[in-house]
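A.,

Following up on our hallway conversation. Structure tokens first:
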């Protein structure tokens, strides 16, 4: 499939339409007051300049452009942008279809992030190395695995790999293990789908505050457990007592729109304050 359109190489894992809500004018051409967590001083940036990584959404599929996924996600963002703006302007709870798109955004932000991808890649690399070391542990295991691969059609029976050469290669470790980016996307969207199902079963409320402004981050979906041991281990969406905080928009003049999951509003509202929000 060919196109005269230049390839998009800078891919946002935090959509610009979302970041726009935290600019000084509430639009994508506005300015953010950005700050890195490594102590670097704050710096001004437009949404286009943050929350992005080169080729983050790249796919290598015959017949498709490398930026096919980026293009598809852009269409989703075009649908989402007016909904975020409308909720911020009206300060009313979104309709069911609009809420569905907002929860899709939340699940995407939760599942697809460079740090999450890096941890998964590291775990998969460790797994691959352990498998290779196991296969080359001794000649009997090597011969068994080679025969199994040939019987399954993964190797030509006439092809013979030397056990000593393979073991030496693995022991030297002079190679890298690279994940197929397309398979990585499949894994992430499976995780996004699972997160969306969890979020869809939660009860949600819109909270508008005139007391303080919200900020956001490149990982804005915050999950917290209300249990006694909440500080002992990270909370997850599968936890029965999970609370989810997701700032939607920063409105000027101390008006903020956000969505928060809760079980009982009467028991929750007394804890909703600038101090409790900062605890997240």
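Then the amino acids I'd put at each of the 280 positions:
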């Amino acid at each position: 499939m060919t196109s005269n359109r230049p390839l998009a190489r800078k891919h946002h894992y935090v959509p610009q339409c979302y970041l726009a809500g935290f600019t000084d004018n509430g639009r994508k051409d506005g300015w953010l007051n950005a700050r890195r967590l490594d102590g670097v001083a704050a710096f001004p940036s437009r949404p286009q300049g943050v929350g992005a990584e080169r080729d983050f959404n790249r796919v290598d599929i015959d017949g498709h452009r490398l930026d096919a996924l980026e293009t598809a996600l852009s269409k989703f963002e075009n649908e989402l942008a007016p909904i975020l703006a409308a909720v911020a302007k009206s300060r009313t709870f979104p309709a069911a279809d609009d809420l569905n798109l907002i929860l899709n955004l939340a699940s995407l932000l939760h599942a697809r992030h460079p740090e999450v991808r890096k941890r998964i890649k590291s775990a998969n690399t460790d797994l691959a190395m352990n498998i290779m070391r196991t296969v080359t542990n001794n000649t009997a295991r090597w011969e068994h695995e080679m025969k199994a691969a040939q019987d399954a059609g993964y190797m030509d029976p006439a092809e013979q790999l030397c056990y000593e050469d393979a073991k030496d290669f693995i022991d030297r470790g002079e190679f890298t293990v690279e994940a197929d980016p397309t398979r990585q996307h499949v894994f992430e969207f499976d995780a996004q789908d699972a997160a969306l199902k969890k979020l869809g079963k939660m009860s949600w409320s819109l909270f508008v505050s005139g007391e303080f402004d919200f900020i956001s981050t490149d990982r804005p979906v915050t999950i917290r457990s209300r249990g006694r041991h909440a500080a002992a281990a990270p909370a997850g969406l599968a936890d029965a007592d999970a609370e989810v905080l997701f700032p939607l928009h920063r409105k000027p003049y101390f008006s903020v729109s956000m969505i928060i999951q809760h079980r009982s509003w009467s028991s929750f509202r007394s804890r909703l304050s600038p101090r409790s929000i900062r605890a997240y």
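The chain has three domains: 8-92, 109-196, 202-280. Curious whether your intuition agrees with the design.

B.
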